[in-house]
Amino acid sequence: MDNEFDVIIVGTGLTQSMAAAALAKAGFKVAHVDPNAYYGGDEAALTLDEVATWAECQSSPDVVNQVQRCTTYTAEYCSTLDVSHPKQYTISLSPSVIPAIGPFITSIIASGVSRYCSFKLLGPVSIYHGGQFKNVPRSKEDVFRDQGIPLIEKRRLMRFLMFVAGDYESSAEFQGKEDTPFQEFLRQTFSLSEDISQSVVFALAYCSYADEPTASALSRVRSCLQSTGRYGPSPFIVAYYGGSGDLAQAFCRAAAVNGSVYILGRRIANIACRDPSSETTGGGRRYALELDDFPEPLYASCLLSSQCHVPDHLRYHVAPISSETSNVRIRLGEVARGIVVLDSPLSPPGEDNEETQTTQSDSFIMVFPPGSVEGGSDVGAVHVSTAGPGTMCTPAEKCIVYLSTPLCDQRRSPKALLEPYLAVILSSISPPPNILFQTFYTQRFPTETERTVPVDSEEDTYSTVPVLPADISHAVDYAAQIAEKAFWKVTSSIRGLDTASLEVSNGFWVGAVSEVDEDSD
User: Fold this and answer.
1) What per-residue confidence (pLDDT) applies to 452?
2) Taking CA atoms, which of 238, 277, 285, 437 is between 20 and 30 Å from 123?
3) Cross-strand partners of 268
4) Distance between CA atoms of 244 and 142, rounded to whole angstroms?
């Protein structure tokens, strides 16, 4: 095998996979390696038996000295796996939805990756108020049709929605309030009631806290409004077969079609930075990467990975790719997560009439604001998403429920924190379904994301990408933005200033597929 490459990418998370596909499509020689035996990294989609094994492994993490640089997991509880045909389930480690308009959907189309995937509209989004679920309006028509919203509240809400849809950045209402807590901004500026402001904060902006900054929250609300109506009444679509994990694998497939080499399930033994002028092997490449049980090193002019895979002797000589984007919410340090498999499907709350029952989706979102459930969190919101046979994630008549919330109180376990919400969901169904499998775990995000000393310009060829935030609504857009930055960083490192010859469109895709072409297939 030819072991000399333009770039070696370590990790097959969604960001790295998108960058690999773009670089391979642009004609670069790419080697893509992952110590895991599966694609997707933290965004992987696993079968149910693989999830049970994964959870068991997370109970006693092997590498504890990388907590500052890696996303780590601690499985606090995992039930016995007593499910027939566990390989018919596809479980996402990072459940997310896709905005119908945004950088990620643009990349899906422009790269041609949409040909490898299937999608469907997300069902309704409901919020838990006063002991019952209420559907969140998704359009102006929904607002006026909702009999539960008083007329004065409808007018105030419509004024806010028109404000967000316009050029609010230059408005007097927004100037100087960029860092104001979002719910406070809604009450002071638009006089929205408690219930309506909570719906906007937690079910349109998908904030985790009421005091998240107004600037980033408004950006996400605008994204939802712009996305509504492109493919249907929902602003979001969902991918089949586990969401982000299958999408990461689809981008890897596109990269392989364009010549990328893939090596999975091999531990990285060493990464060495060399002096190209004095080396007789590797064709003058700066980096040599050694893998366990692999016959020879891989050589490359550039490296791209997460901070997790940077060896200690190079950790202060890498160039982190900026993670600053306009719509990223507050970065959470720890998130309590739960995965629950039920023996019967769930119906969207509030969908009672026969017409909606015949067309309802088994993929929908339920939102619990802080303090809405006794025994739950008084500080953070809980976001719940579902998946079923409609997205090929379960066998017929089964359902997967994902729960997540910021872990604010270190004295409470993920199971104790999330079980009250699960009880509310199950009690809303008659008869209540049985639980076939459940696991609760803590996801800890890196605390060290940036280098602390400057790198030499000649060594600015090892770049790192930040981990994706725990954001169910816009994590994929964030991945696309970082992947685009990584593409141009690697391209400029290899070609210098000679990047004008790349005929790219839609951001960073060479020979992009147009939406018209895609729709005609």
Assistant:
1) 43
2) 437
3) 291
4) 30
